[in-house]
């Protein structure tokens, strides 16, 4: 009896020191998937979206989710488990067996210029999914991946379009191979809308916008039939589906890219008088997914504008003469630019950056006897994604060209801080 008592005491001590079975069992699993469902309920009278996030199937792997919110847009958080509120963060500690979190999102986002970057109209809504479900830091017990679904609950007669596949325009499967935690990303549109789709090479292109606004859906598809194959030749790991959203006022009169998608005002020309294309420019942004931080936005915008012109030359959309004429116009526009580096590259700075990229391309081709080009550098940047820098550009060019190039040296005044 005495021996049995000692044995039981030892067993109980070991269990208590290791911890309770749920945590210890999960820690031994290298991979465990959990189910997360997003529901967007569109509320026309309030011009808001009611978001419900439900966790089920192995929800116990999740310790917490910390959302990086903007209080002026995200409000009224309620849910199961514990919710911790801070100035710009909401941290949700869900119950082990799953539960739900709800909150409301103000859709309208007016830009400094007066136009809207997102808008809830009477019979249509244009917004970005990553603004409705903001960036989130997820803490899990061991390694875990999500299985995510998105559902739109809308007024009768409305349909939705996103970068995700759907059989009914209501339910969507979210699967991002670059992320362990899937959340809705990219531009989205719902309402009484018109959609045109076409398969171009390996990419399904959808062009969507409100009805009766003169959206040039077929013009966009025609331009991409000529130029998307050239883009895919440079960026073979491009999206299997892209969404182009367009609308009239009060939306902003420009173009904005997002993951696998872009917005372009319906009055923006497919090809401008200067020979470049806002549509292709924004598609390059979607392909590369890079940002320039505080100093090197010129790299991001320079690549996008250079390829918006270069791809049209390669496809024959514009002839060589027009291509050269456009370069000469860019030269005049950027002639007074003394340095490229800075937080925001616009207008004349971007024009000068295009000429820099053209010279860099010529240098790489000359150094490698046409065995390599700027395309190889662009591929590397697109595969890395995220923040780009002058240092990284120098490194990749050196790898591609086989040696450093003078144009990227510290002695080039254009590259001074």
In total, the number of domains comes to 2
CATH topology of the largest domain: Immunoglobulin-like
Q: Which second-level CATH architecture of the largest domain applies?
A: Sandwich
End-to-end distance: 81 Å
Write a structural description:
- The structure is a single chain.
- This protein is an alpha+beta fold.
- The protein has two domains: 33-209, Immunoglobulin-like (Sandwich), CATH 2.60.40; 287-415, no CATH class.
- Helices cover 32% and strands 30% of the residues.
- The chain has ten helices and 22 strands.
- The chain has helices at residues 2-18, 21-27, 129-132, 217-234, 278-288, 297-315, 320-333, 347-367, 374-384, 390-401, and strands spanning 33-43, 48-56, 62-68, 74-79, 82-85, 89-93, 99-106, 109-110, 116-120, 124-128, 136-140, 145-153, 159-161, 171-174, 187-191, 193-200, 203-210, 241-247, 255-258, 261-265, 290-291, 386-387.
- The strands form five sheets. The protein has a six-stranded mixed β-sheet, with no helix packed on it. A five-stranded antiparallel β-sheet has the order 8-9-10-15-13. It has a five-stranded mixed β-sheet with strand order 16-17-18-20-19, covered by helices on one side.
- Helix 6 crosses helix 8 (347-367).
- It starts with a helix and ends in a 16-residue tail after the last helix.
- Residues 1-30 have low confidence and may be disordered.
């Amino acid at each position: 009896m005495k021996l049995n008592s000692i044995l039981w005491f030892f067993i109980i001590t070991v269990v208590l020191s290791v911890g309770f079975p749920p945590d210890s069992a999960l820690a031994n699993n290298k991979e465990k998937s959990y189910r997360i469902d997003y529901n967007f309920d569109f509320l026309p009278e309030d011009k808001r979206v009611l978001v419900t996030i439900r966790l089920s199937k192995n929800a116990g792997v999740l310790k917490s989710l910390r959302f990086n919110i903007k209080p002026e847009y995200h409000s009224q958080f309620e849910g199961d488990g514990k919710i911790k509120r801070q100035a710009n963060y909401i941290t949700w500690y869900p119950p082990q067996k799953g539960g739900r979190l709800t909150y409301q999102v103000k859709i309208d986002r007016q830009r400094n210029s007066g136009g809207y970057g997102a808008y809830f109209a009477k019979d249509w809504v244009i917004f970005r999914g990553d603004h409705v479900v903001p960036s989130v830091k997820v803490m899990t017990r061991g390694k875990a991946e999500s299985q995510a679904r998105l559902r739109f609950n809308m007024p009768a007669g409305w349909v939705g379009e996103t970068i995700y596949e759907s059989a009914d325009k209501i339910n969507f499967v979210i699967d991002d191979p670059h992320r362990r935690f899937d959340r809705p990303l990219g531009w989205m549109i719902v309402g009484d809308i018109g959609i045109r789709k076409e398969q171009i090479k390996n990419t399904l292109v959808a062009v969507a916008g409100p009805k009766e606004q003169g959206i040039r859906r077929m013009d966009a598809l025609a331009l991409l039939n000529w130029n998307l194959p050239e883009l895919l030749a440079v960026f073979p790991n491009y999206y299997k589906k892209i969404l182009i959203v367009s609308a009239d006022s009060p939306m902003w009169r420009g173009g904005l890219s997002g993951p696998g998608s872009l917005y372009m005002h319906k009055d923006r020309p497919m090809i401008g008088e200067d020979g470049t294309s806002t549509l292709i420019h924004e598609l390059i942004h979607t392909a590369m997914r890079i940002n320039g931080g505080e100093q090197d936005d010129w790299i991001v915008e320079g690549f996008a504008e250079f390829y918006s012109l270069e791809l049209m030359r390669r496809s024959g959309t514009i002839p060589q003469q027009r291509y050269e004429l456009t370069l000469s116009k860019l030269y005049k526009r950027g002639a007074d630019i003394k340095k490229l580096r800075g937080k925001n590259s616009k207008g004349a700075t971007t024009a000068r950056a295009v000429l820099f990229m053209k010279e860099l391309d010529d240098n790489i081709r000359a150094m490698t006897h046409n065995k390599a080009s700027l395309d190889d550098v662009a591929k590397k940047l697109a595969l890395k994604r995220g923040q780009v820098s002058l240092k990284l550009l120098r490194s990749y060019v050196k790898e591609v060209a086989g040696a450093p190039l003078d144009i990227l040296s510290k002695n080039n005044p254009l590259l001074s801080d």
